[in-house]
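Dataset card, provenance and construction

Sequences and ligand SMILES were collected as paired inputs. For each pair, a complete structure of the chain with the small molecule in place was predicted and serialized as structure tokens. The example below shows a pair involving zinc ion. Curators did not alter the output after generation; any descriptive sentences attached to a record were derived from the structure itself.
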Amino acid sequence: MPTTNKDYYGTLGVKKTATAEEIRKAFRKAARRYHPDVNPGDKRSEEKFKEISEANDVLSDEKKRKIYDQVGFYSDQIDPATAEAYARQQGGGRGAPVDFGGFDFSGFQNGPGQHRGQHAGSPADSASWGSFKDIFSGIFTGAQQPQQPRGPQPGSDLEYQATVDFWTAIRGGQARLDVHRQESCPTCHGQASTGGPTQCVECNGTGQVTQMGGRMKFNIPCPRCNGTGRTTNLCSTCHGEGLVDRDETVEFRIKAGTRDGQRIRLQGKGNAGVNGGPAGDLFLIVRTGTHPVFTRVGDDIHLAVPVTMPEASLGAKVDVPTIDGRAQLKIPPGTQNGQKLRMRERGVESSQHPGKRGDQIVTVEVQVPKLSDERSREIMRELAKLNNQDPRVALFEKL
Ligand SMILES: [Zn+2]
Ligand SMILES: [Zn+2]
């Protein structure tokens, strides 16, 4: 079953007389269009990209291009002198055909032809083609890299921010989060192929194909099955990736006292691995929700509490809210506005140090009474007379 010679010039859309610069430009233009990174999951673009890569690999190399021009295809096994001799004979149209039969074609599988077919059991992997960036930074080595069958590959980790209700973070409980993750394909169970290996359609199971070079025939390892004679069917559900994307609601436990910014690791809840590789982990960064009255700072709870002028002045016991309900707070006599009072161990139970609790910090807001009756104003004036210290004296002393 002979394979036809490849028209590399046609593939890149350039003339046979194209300069190296024209070939370079044509390849970059085509690569930009067909690179797997810009056409994720598009098998036809991928095939096309392989073709242009192969064409570029040969035509961008002066020596390879010359051999290709002379013989009609390229192989590392043909030395320039042989190609030259072959071309002369073709041109003269006489004499015995050059015999390539003595060449060892075993190394051919490292040549560009190999990439035309899918490697048995190995899904197409754009990574082995060099990234989009690589091509344009000149690192791209094209078809030179032999494509290895993929072994088990671990799945990648995922990281999400999870906002947790104020009370759930303090008291603990269950929380949920919608995540987007890659899961092992349910059809092929992550194997990327379905069914057992079948006979290769390109070489009819012989593992060899005949490549024509002018009047010459060459037996080379079949590029589709890599000379094995057998291929596997790519799974149609995952297109040979072994993975499918899935939106999932993940339920997780929140420990009592979980702080804002704390990380939770859910083992094996990241992206699934390929070919039996372990799944990655899912990392959740907890964002604790807010509350209209309480402000949480670490394990402490802060809140502002209004007190009357007599309470602040004379001292009092007042009821204040805490995260456990009402509690009594002693306002010492002479408490000033803005003063902070600490209520020990009325804060959040620590998740890191069991048995320890934070404090509640109360900021006193003294409320000045609006006096609407003459009797109250009279009393206030009297009070002022009895307490006629000037509170601004210290201020002026500092000038
Ligand atoms: Zn599958
Ligand atoms: Zn084959």
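Derived descriptions for this record:
The pocket of zinc ion (ligand 1) is lined by residues 185, 187-188, 235, 237-238, 242 (CB under 6 Å).
The two ends are 104 Å apart (CA to CA).
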